[in-house]
Design a protein that fits this description.
The protein is built from two helices and nine strands; from the N terminus they run H-E-E-E-E-E-E-H-E-E-E. With 185 residues, it is mainly beta. The relative contact order is 0.31.
Length: 185
């Protein structure tokens, strides 16, 4: 029925990373119907641009819901990682809390619990980060200084981002990686 019971709540998994406290702008840009048999999370499409205001992220996400952009209040977690070929990378997990998940589930039901349709709404999710929480830093002390290089990763050292549309129940889509564009900084 779309109601999350206490036993179901125990199975919820929040994404890794640190919550990002930033303004998140959600705009609905369309919809697509995949037919009755397709019911799975889809990968995001993203863009990352380094500006004077920080790292600006735009992600296109597809969500099976009848909720409008005004009703969606996604949260973002950020995590520093190293990419496949050694690049400094940030991962962003776009997700909803329990209350929002219940609203999404309920929006797909009719009175007898059947799915209304299989339409995915397409949303543009935009946010900016300046947060460097969890970034690697070099050795703090002087001991072994000769064998360690001082590494102090800053936001401007990020070369790529990966975004996930995370479902706390706990399915998730695969991540989508994109190169950070630098606007002359």
């Amino acid at each position: 029925m779309g109601i999350i019971t206490d036993s179901e709540k125990d199975g919820l998994t929040n994404p890794p990373g640190t919550p990002l406290y930033t303004t998140v702008v959600v705009t609905e840009i369309g919809s697509i119907n995949f037919g009755k048999t397709f019911k799975q999370p889809l990968p995001t499409l993203n863009q990352a641009i380094m500006t004077g205001n920080g790292l600006e992220i735009t992600a296109i996400v597809l969500v099976r819901t009848t909720l409008s952009a005004i009703d969606l209040k996604p949260k973002i977690n950020q995590q520093f990682t190293i990419g496949t070929y050694g690049e400094n990378q940030l991962q962003f997990f776009i997700y909803c809390d329990e209350k929002q998940l219940k609203a999404i589930i309920d929006s797909n039901k009719i009175a007898d619990g059947e799915t209304v349709d299989n339409t995915y709404r397409v949303f543009k999710v935009e946010f900016t980060t300046t947060d460097e929480t969890g970034f690697p830093t070099g050795p703090i002390g002087i001991e072994n200084k000769d064998i360690f290089t001082g590494i102090d990763v800053k936001l401007e050292h990020i070369k790529q981002v990966q975004t996930f549309l995370w479902n706390i129940d706990p399915e998730t889509s695969r991540g989508t990686v994109t190169t950070v564009q630098n606007l002359g900084l």
